[in-house]
Protein: SDR family mycofactocin-dependent oxidoreductase
Amino acid sequence: MPWVGRARSRVAPWVGRVVSRVALVTGAARGIGAATVLALAADGWRVLAVDACTDDPALPYALGTPDDLAASVAAGNAAGGVVAGFEADVRDENGLCDAVAWAEAEWGGLDAAIGVAGVIAGGVPLWEMPRDQLDTVLDVDLFGVVALARAAVPALLRRPAPRDGRFIAVASAAATRGLPMLAAYCAAKAGVAGLIRGLAADLRGTGVTANAVSPGSTETKILDESARLYDLPSAASFAAQQPLERLLAPAEVAAALAFLAGPGASGMTGAVVPVDAGLAL
Structure:
């Protein structure tokens, strides 16, 4: 479902504005996704901000809302970019294909796809984890990235050669560090890292790259939920395990994602870049 700031016209916000590259960002309503929309917009990108904008009955915490996505869109437009919102669940490959098709029809193509959407669940050993929570973690955190690749990479390849498309995903320090009572999350994020390496090999010679960022403990709703799962007083408790002795801001992770989307990362593919305050050391 496409919309731009809930305006009736999908065109008015960018009429008369000169912009260039086009990106699609999932999980765009809040956290790292919203920060990535803002970072790209500030660099002059056209950004299709995608989010499911609905809670999941398997998860005991609230997810992003339509109002959150509208705020992300408004912030991006205020920063100088051209941002539109699109409601789609990353578990729905057809919905992601619709989002990609919208970007191509309205903006002429796609230059970057950035998979940020993620959830967390656990708090018990894997064998005690409710099956619906297990499925949700794997379906959103891993197969949501797979679905984005299947929907977006063909559009990246439809750009004429020589092309310089970017497929980027958010993994986690959990991809390489085992976290107690979060085995499904660790598996999903390790899968994202492996997916990126394999996708980079598949994209050999096309001009399209595939990279990922692995954040450490970042000030997001997922970290708040992690604190609850571990029965900690707040997410701030996680700062002590990072050598920088603080939590990351979503903007710090978004800066790395924006870098990977830009010309400075032209020599990188198959990389999983840690932005983790040293957590994975």
Summary: The chain is about 40% helix and 15% strand.
